[in-house]
């Protein structure tokens, strides 16, 4: 009461005084992380080389906000159970951009019985003679499930295009095929989130070096990573084409700057929470009357 009165006597509302104190302490991360999913939507062709703003987040702020959003994701998952609600999350991005870190933090929060992760690699021999989307149809979620694709069907217009594993006519046709595929998913009730994690070339080099030096991270680094690095310009063009041609109203892309891993994780969780939880009642469900009656008898409850 006294502090509030003091703030008003000085002619400064309490909220403004609070923000002033934050700035004075240098804790601008509070402001940077006041983010919304729509801030990351791709509305037109992006120029990746021009993305120079990479906000940073203080670790203490990151931990607090991440824990809160993990709890919200738990509530979203529980709201899906026993309903027709289901979701697909697509994580694409440069090598070392942070896809695995996001997957791990989702896995720490969600019940694995209705949460699945598919790390997508090259198609197996028996899949190579089929339409490239068939192996993904088989992995779409059932009622109540949340599925994450760590890389996805967009390989058709990225690695298969750049490495010439698909003919030009095939990967150019894929933009329409993918839009139709995702339109069918959304029309069928699947909530779809598509995030592309972007880092700068200099940051990727720094992370490559870290993986070489750190014995616990060496398994993440492969010869293919260096081959892809050598074709950065080709991949950059392919990514920009992909974002331009497949970010549509019913299935937009979210372009997330992740030079700062903490900021990237918070941004991606923000997007997932807003899209996957939109319109849901997230309060715990009331106890089933039959369960309540049995518990009353078993525990002699009044």
Average pLDDT rating: 88
CATH 4th-level superfamily: P-loop containing nucleotide triphosphate hydrolases
What is the gyration radius calculated from CA atoms? 23 Å
Label the overall shape. globular
Order the strands across the largest sheet as they lie in space.
Answer: 2-3-1-4-5
The stretches of 5 or more residues where confidence is low (pLDDT under 50) are: 1-33
Describe what is shown at a glance.
The protein is an alpha/beta fold and 302 residues long.
Question: Mind explaining what this structure looks like?
Answer:
The chain is α/β, with parallel strands linked by helices and 302 residues long. It has one domain: Rossmann fold. It has 13 helices and five strands. The protein has a five-stranded parallel sheet, with helices on both faces. The longest helix is centred in the first third of the chain and has 22 residues. The protein starts with a helix and ends with a helix. The N terminus is likely disordered.
């Amino acid at each position: 009461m006294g502090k509030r009165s003091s703030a008003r006597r000085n002619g400064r509302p309490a909220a403004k005084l609070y923000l002033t104190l934050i700035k004075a302490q240098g804790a601008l991360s509070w402001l940077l992380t006041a983010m919304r999913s729509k801030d990351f939507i791709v509305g037109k062709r992006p120029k990746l080389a021009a993305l120079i703003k990479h906000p940073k987040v203080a670790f203490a702020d990151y931990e607090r906000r991440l824990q809160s959003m993990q709890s919200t994701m738990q509530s979203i998952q529980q709201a899906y159970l026993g309903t027709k609600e289901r979701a697909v999350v697509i994580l694409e991005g440069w090598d070392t951009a942070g896809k695995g870190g996001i997957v791990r933090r989702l896995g720490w929060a969600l019940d694995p019985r209705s949460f699945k992760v598919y790390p997508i690699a090259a198609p197996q021999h028996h899949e190579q003679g089929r339409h490239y989307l068939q192996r993904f149809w088989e992995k779409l979620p059932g009622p109540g499930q949340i599925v994450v694709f760590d890389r996805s069907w967009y390989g058709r217009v990225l690695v298969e295009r750049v490495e010439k594993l698909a003919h030009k006519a095939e990967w150019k046709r894929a933009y329409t095929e993918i839009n139709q595929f995702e339109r069918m998913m959304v029309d069928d009730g699947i909530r779809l989130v598509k995030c592309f994690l972007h880092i700068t070339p200099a940051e990727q080099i720094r992370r490559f070096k870290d993986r070489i030096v750190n014995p616990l991270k060496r398994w993440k680094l492969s010869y293919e990573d260096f081959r892809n690095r050598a074709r950065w310009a080709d991949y950059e063009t392919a990514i920009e084409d992909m974002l331009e041609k497949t970010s549509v109203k019913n299935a937009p892309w979210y372009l997330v700057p992740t030079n700062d891993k903490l900021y990237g994780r918070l941004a991606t969780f923000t997007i997932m929470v807003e899209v996957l939880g939109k319109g849901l009642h997230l309060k715990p469900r009331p106890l089933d009357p039959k369960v309540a009656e049995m518990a009353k008898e078993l525990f002699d409850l009044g």
